[in-house]
Amino acid sequence: MTGPSTKSLAAWTRPNSLPATWRGSRLVGKILMGLAVLVLIILFLYPPLLMVMAAFRRGQLAGQGEWTLQPFLDTITSPVTWVVTWNSIVLSLVVAILGLAFGTFLAWVAVRTRTPMRRWMTPIMAVTLVIPSLFYGLGWYVTLAPPKAPVNQALQGIFGLGPGDAPVSSGWGTLIFVVVGHVIPIAYLFMVGPMSRMDAALDDAARMSGATRGSAFFTVTLPLLRPSMLGVLALMTTYGMSAFELPLLFGLPSGIHVFSTKVLNTINESEDLPNYAGASTLALILVLLVVLLVALRERFVGNRRYSTITGKGFRPEPKSYGRWQWAFLAVFVLVVLWSGVIPLVQMILGSFEYIAGVASLGFTTGNYEEVLTGRRTFQALTFTLGIAAIGGFLAAAVALLLSHTAVRSGRFVRVVAMLVSWAPVAIPGVLVGLALLTAYMPIPGLQKLIGTPVMLVLGFIVVATPIATRAVEGGVLQLSAELEESARISGASRATTFFTVVFPLVLPSFLAGWFIAGIGIAGNLSLPVLLSTPTMRTAAVTAYDLYNQGRTGESAALFLLLMLAVAVVGGLAWLVSLGVIRLLKRTRVSRIERAMSMKGSVLHA
Amino acid sequence: MEFPLASVTVRSLRKHFGAFEAIKGADLQAAEGEFVTLLGESGCGKTTTLRCIAGLETPTSGHISIGSRAVYDGDARIDVQPERRETGMVFQSYALWPHLTVMETVLYPLRRRKVRGKEATDRALEILETVGLAQYAARPATSLSGGQQQRVALARALVSRPQLMLYDEPLSNLDPSLRRQVRDEILRMHHLNGTTSIYVTHDLEEAMHLSDRIIVMQSGLLEQTGTPAEIFAKPSNEFVAKFVGFENLLPATVVAVRGGEVELELTTAGLTVALPVAASAGALSAGDEVSVGFRSSNALVVGEPSPASGRRLELRGTIERVDFLGSRNEYRIVSGEARLRVAESERAYRHQTLRREAGAEVWVQVDADLCTIIPTGRTTAAPQTPVGAPA
């Protein structure tokens, strides 16, 4: 253009070393992104950091505690610590392998065979996931563990044992059995995707080359799935690491401690002062193990998480396996009984029995009367529903923002988002609670939050974000970048684009994420067990207390009421939103038609 | 409809993705109302250039202005967000929002630009009638057929009367039968509104049909700018020549330029020929290394040399292979060290007797005005050096 004007000369005096992508109006976007990352750090990074520091302090966190290595060294050198570590590793590995074996097999049955009912398998598995661990655990507990439990009664009859004998009770066997049953649906749902994207022609090629059906499965299908299976295996191991409710019910009575239960036990072991240092040290060992697992998972799976085996988008042709399919169906039915129906039915029965699990004494509605007339019942239920709704919404919102930024941004943000959405899977809620306590107690202003619902909600966001992310990210991944770009070109700012294009399109996934996260929160015991106070108790904590007092029937009744409430509230919300959507659609269409008739053009829509 | 017209200027535009240089210093101009096409193979940087102009991609350095307004300047730290650049864009994948109806889709850009009420609906309906989709206004945009969807996208891009239209391979996702139809629609809308347009494609025919001017791009560089006729007849380098369909490129050296003629020595065919100066895309002088190019369909295969020595290129060769393709025969002919490709039309092969088999000796004739001299940018110091393999 023309020579340098005074204005352009003046511009030169400004510091001009920023790269182009950091300049001008894009800077605002970067600042917003920075803020988002900051919130994530406060929510997800700061509490664990303070927990690390707590491992090296003695005395009260809030007061003038002194820095010392002593509690750390005490914990590290204590043989109990290593027994707990060993227990956790054994439990999670055994559970992961067994769960994956069943899950993979059933996924194969559902996708690649013509077994009857195969189309119902995925929905049924998804529904069993909704059952809270504590509820599931209590259901199995009254079925298996006490001497008067149905299983023990039957065994006593068969082997002629005394009425006080319990051939089956808590311990390694039942613990593993129960935890495996709880994780099979998770393994199934993770395997069914990769399995259905696999080209059946690869199997056919093996058959044409002389392999039998069985050997084609073991020589072609399974090896091709190996990357997915290793990834899911690592994930399942982290599920085992974070298990809390089930070890509490089936391990603790036999003295089997895992990380989550030991952390709780360590905090409460001395009467006068909570042992935060010892608990934090234990937590650190677990975090280290989990980081190792996540790293392993990255090595095996890396970027292949969403890649398909052939990428052609065909449906694999299911094949008939004749009479074997009835055996496949039988395995499926057994697994559904195992991971859902038996504990559920047992809890429903138990809520009507004088002693839960003992049907011989007859039935009563006494438990419900007791619970419904209880002073705190209504309060606990509404409090739980409120916390679940708010926490679930916030978790789904965090999940949406995370997965959206992860898809649309550079590598750094993507890695941060992935860590935030995966790491909490492996961290038991007890640890999240511990981290929050250690983070907020030393700071005078924030200290006041402890014992308030705010603290619980903060913790639940962390706990429920991974669950919500699984539901939300699918919707986000389906959005092509061009849909947003065309909005920008049409004159919408980044924020307007998010609310007018991105949000309406991912709304179904968002609502699903909200609901699932809410259910997870409503049934969660491991977080509120540390954070709730006598005046602020969730239904799960109340139910666990009732169980501890031997009032298992009431506990079952309370839990069923909670699930009923969740179902009613969820169903009502669903109906209302359906109605609203239909109404909106009608008004939108009629508005367009009105505009067109005013213009006088011919209309046939 | 009144559309504001604006010119586009892009100066020394660079864009790096990590170590990869997608655009290596592009300069381009589009006058007010001009239809300019960026033509090139996939990965040549044409789409990135378009996205930089749209503001969807931030360049590494350079300058872009639309009209008199700078929308990007690396030195002055100007980077206008895409929504403030007043452009319209048509995407390859249509990019229609599945949650909106056709009407709402077209209203969207108007709402964002604060056009409301009756004016907005009138403008939206007007543009929908222009593209012939008014009767689908209440239908979800994604429920229409491919061609209709792309016409909705076209209406959405035009409805806010942008000063610049950008097209990113808008026809690639359409069936071949629909392509022609939407192409005509784009051209019709352009003639109707006269908006300055930049169009990206890899399809030569599309570019020829639509453009006032074509810019050929290759690996991040602009290779040649010209009208469709210029690009088609006189490519300025070998890459463009191959891209616009010159199958035969024979290396040659300029021996002398005298009068209206250029005397050339064809190094691989081993003969000298005189062609009119007008056949060259640039100025020539003795010693320049060039290529003599012609399309296979512009050459004739004959059994013996014709006595009348008009101004034409005549090469003697041996048939290496003949392929019968129905409407034509395709020959590979070896002449000296050169390999020629010649197509014989149905008319020629029905009217002429010829030994059409490998090993037969034939003559290839090309009229001088159908030959193009393409500069290579290299010069040999001594034009009389013995025949060597050119680089």
Oligomer: heterodimer
Whole-number tally of structural domains of chain A:
1
Mean pLDDT of chain A: 79
Would you list the SSEs of chain B in sequence order as H and E?
EEEHEEEEHHHEHEHEEHHEEEEEEEEHEE
Q: How does this model look, in words?
A:
The complex is a heterodimer of chains A (605) and B (391). By secondary structure, chain A is mainly alpha-helical. Chain A has helices at 6-12, 26-54, 70-77, 79-112, 118-128, 133-144, 150-159, 172-196, 200-208, 213-242, 245-250, 259-268, 276-301, 324-350, 366-373, 377-408, 411-426, 429-440, 444-447, 453-478, 481-489, 494-523, 528-531, 539-548, 552-599; strands at 57-58, 66-67, 353-355, 358-363. In chain A, the strands form 2 sheets. Chain A has a two-stranded antiparallel ribbon with strand order 1-2. A two-stranded antiparallel ribbon of chain A has the order 3-4. Residues 1-17, 304-314 and 601-605 of chain A have low confidence and may be disordered. In chain B, the strands form 4 sheets. A 6-stranded mixed sheet of chain B has the order 7-8-9-3-10-11, sandwiched between helices. In chain B, strands 2-1-4-5-6 form a 5-stranded antiparallel sheet, with helices on one face. In chain B, strands 14-13-12-15-21 form a 5-stranded antiparallel sheet. In chain B, helix 2 (102-112) crosses helix 3 (117-130).
Quickly list its features.
heterodimer; A: about 600 residues; mainly alpha; MetI-like fold; two-stranded antiparallel sheet; 4 strands; about 75% helix; globular; disordered C terminus; B: about 400 residues; alpha+beta; Rossmann fold; OB fold (Dihydrolipoamide Acetyltransferase, E2P); 9 helices
